[in-house]
Specification:
702 residues, mainly beta, Jelly Rolls, Tachylectin-2, Chain A, 42% strand, hydrolase activity, hydrolyzing O-glycosyl compounds
């Protein structure tokens, strides 16, 4: 009898736990939910009840009734009253707000949901307001911090239920009406991070109160996706909101944006934007050797003075320098370290690539000269011998200077605009072969070099070329998208037998054909090796991994990509990441799923491969929307060669470690390799494989 009672208790506890977890999953991120079912309580029990106000946010008096709502009952606003909510419902830069409203009358500037602070004494004007009729005459999300207008381009009607929602993620804002996105923008003000914000419904500090009904107010501590907002607008009582993963920083890494690698005196160095640099003995543990843009910087001391000429070329002046390309010049009697870099300003169309020189890899470097210039649209370009055209001529940033297999020196460069271009260099001077030292420009009309990829303002930059003697191919690595956490940076590759191309992707497409500014067209070009992803069980992942360099170690035969990446849940903070690359059966590189920790390719057995995996398909798109992350799915690689779980297919082990993975009829070619999973803190079997369509899949055992 005791056994039966104990079994019943365990069964009930199990059911309770499962239901609790299900509710937790469904409500992840929901921090306040006001349903107005005859009261003003928060159904999540996180915040206190509303307080009724008069016709302004702090005025007394007023009365709120309840009437027929969109879902059950709703709060009724009489045009002279409002509700003062709990303070600090939102206190950071990522959140969502959603609610239903039915306006009896619509007056200009009248608010429905208001949050923030207006304080004449301190001068703080930091607030947001959902306004049925803003200054444009249309419905909008309005911010009084720098007067940001998220205009919905539509005026909601009176006497109809309308669903409004907004999602803000570190400055990216999406405004929805009835589940449809009506506005998307960037640089939305950070209203709540540094103030004691007030929250209200129907009233603000200045304008006439709202008259009508409000129902089902929900506040989330993370941005909702368009699909999740659409579910709410369709009447869903609960939505499955995936809890945001916060990936912990790697304590062995450092922060160097656009890291370009060089090995010298037995040590690895990376140089990046803003004069940041770091050093490692093993590609695993990094030490910062330079960071701040100030007079004490060891790479280029007193940079404002030393680099005055190059900083002054953009208009307005550049405030710093961008990506660096370090190289030791081999020419006889030269033996100098050259640091090629770009100067640009986000507000200027003009940029340049310049050179600094040192006798020591760690500096100090002295400014030498400007080598190549970019101009404003329509301005005469000496290099081109014609007026500059952004759709045709290259963006003059992101240099990579390198030797080919025959010892010839080249510069690859470019960003968006007219694509990536290649110039041959004079090894004796370190300048482009067509550079005229007397004029300080490329020879007039000699051109910007040969185009290798892009054009038409296609979103490609950060190019890097690496020759692999084992395959006898040159590999052109590129970053598609933009660098911010929500910019969708992703690393792609094409290859050629010749250093100057043509560079083809696995589909056989010449990358010069991608000459469209359309981000959607990017799906057709290049092999996508890595983008936004999360291994959920490991709690590891990247946002906007990109601007890579690459390295081939002749002694070990190992190859690596070195790039920077943001992390989910860490805003714009970035770190250097090093991953080993393995060349598959068809001679294409695949990036291993975990950061390099000293592992080597070795023979593996089917027994070690069999097991449960976190599976990621990187797809082909640029994940430029917030929360566009490829989350891992759970699969099993079974001993009989089948794959089961959330995706189905088969797997084969070929010649010790090569992998052939088949998913839904599509074959992927790569390798199995044991790696250290720092999230799970253990060695796990992994695979990385690439299809003939340029799609990468990963697996990491757990």
């Amino acid at each position: 009898m005791r056994v039966k009672k104990l079994s019943l208790v365990i069964f009930l506890l199990t059911i309770f736990l499962v239901l609790s977890l299900a509710v937790q999953a469904a409500d992840a991120g929901l921090i306040a939910h006001y349903q107005f079912e005859g009261d003003l309580t928060d159904a999540e029990s996180n915040f206190s009840d509303f307080k009724v106000t008069g016709d302004r946010i702090f005025n007394s008096g007023g009365k709120i009734n309840f009437g027929q709502g969109k879902n059950g009952q709703a709060a009724v606003f009489d045009g002279s009253s409002g509700l003062f909510l709990a303070e600090n419902l939102i206190d950071d830069y990522s959140y969502s707000i959603a609610f239903w409203l039915r306006a009896d009358a619509i007056n200009q500037f009248t608010t429905t949901f208001f949050a923030g602070l207006s304080d004449q004494e301190s001068g703080i004007e930091s607030w947001i307001s959902f306004v049925p009729q803003g200054p444009s005459g249309r419905t909008m999300l309005w911010s009084g911090n720098n007067w940001y207008d998220a205009d919905g381009n539509f005026k909601i009607p009176e006497d109809q239920w309308v669903h409004l929602a907004a999602a803000v993620d570190q400055g990216e804002v999406h405004f929805y009406i009835n589940g449809t996105e009506h506005f998307r923008g960037s640089d939305f003000p950070d209203v709540f991070s540094d103030i004691e914000a007030k929250f209200a419904l129907g009233v603000n500090y200045w304008d006439n109160p709202f008259e009508g009904k409000i129902d089902d107010l929900r506040i989330y501590d993370q941005p909702l996706t368009a699909e999740e907002v659409a579910e709410l607008a369709a009447g869903a009582e609960k939505i499955e909101v995936k809890a945001e993963t916060k990936v912990e920083l790697d304590p062995q890494s450092v922060s160097v944006h656009d890291p370009m690698i060089i090995k010298e005196n037995g040590s690895f160095y990376v140089f990046g934007s803003h004069l940041a640099a770091a050093k490692s003995e093993d590609l695993i543990e990094w030490k910062q050797i330079s960071g701040d843009w100030d007079a004490s910087n060891p790479i280029i001391p007193n940079p404002e003075e030393e680099l005055q000429e190059t900083l002054a070329w953009p208009e307005p002046d550049a405030e710093s320098t961008w990506a660096k390309s370090p190289i030791k010049i081999r020419a006889k009697d030269t033996n100098k370290y050259h640091l090629y870099f770009s100067s640009a300003n986000w507000e200027s169309e003009r940029s340049n690539i310049s050179l600094a020189v040192s006798d020591n890899i760690e500096g100090p470097y002295e400014f030498d000269r400007i080598l190549i210039r970019k101009y404003e649209e329509g301005q005469y370009s000496r290099e081109a011998g014609e007026n500059f055209r952004h759709q045709k001529h290259p963006g003059v940033i992101d240099p990579h200077v390198f030797y080919d297999k025959n010892g010839r020196l080249w510069m690859l460069y470019g960003s968006y605009a007219g694509g990536l271009h290649l110039l041959e260099m004079d090894e004796e001077t370190g300048y482009p072969e067509n550079y005229n030292p007397e004029t300080g420009y490329l020879e007039e009309g000699s051109g910007y070099g040969k185009k290798l990829a892009g054009g038409g303002h296609s979103p490609i930059e950060g190019g890097y070329i690496l020759y692999n003697p084992e395959t006898d191919y040159y590999y052109l690595y590129m970053s598609f998208g933009t660098l911010a956490a929500d910019g969708g940076y992703n690393i792609r590759v094409a290859r050629s037998k010749n250093v100057d191309g043509p560079y083809l992707d696995p589909q056989g497409t010449d990358l010069r054909e991608y000459d469209s500014g359309s981000w959607a067209d990017a799906v057709n070009y290049g092999a996508k090796l890595i983008g936004n992803f999360v291994f959920e069980k490991s709690e590891l992942g990247y946002l906007s991994p990109g601007h890579n360099s690459a390295y081939y170690d002749q002694s070990s035969g190992k190859s690596f990509v070195i790039f920077h990446s943001r992390y989910p849940g860490q805003g714009e903070y970035h770190q250097v990441r090093v991953h080993q690359t393995i060349f598959n059966q068809k001679g294409w590189p695949v990036i291993t799923p975990h950061a390099y920790n000293g592992e080597s390719l070795s023979a593996v057995s089917g027994e070690k491969i069999s097991g449960s995996y976190q599976f990621v398909n990187h797809g082909r798109n640029i994940q430029n929307g917030y929360k566009e992350i490829n989350y891992s799915e759970e699969i099993k690689l079974n001993a009989d060669g089948s794959i089961s779980g959330e995706v189905r297919g088969s797997w084969k082990l070929i010649d010790d470690y090569f992998a052939e993975i088949t998913i839904e009829g599509e074959k992927y070619y790569g390798a199995f390799i044991s790696q250290f999973d720092r999230g799970l803190a253990k060695e796990v079997m992994t695979f990385s494989a690439l299809s003939d369509k340029g799609v990468t899949v990963w697996g990491s055992q757990y």
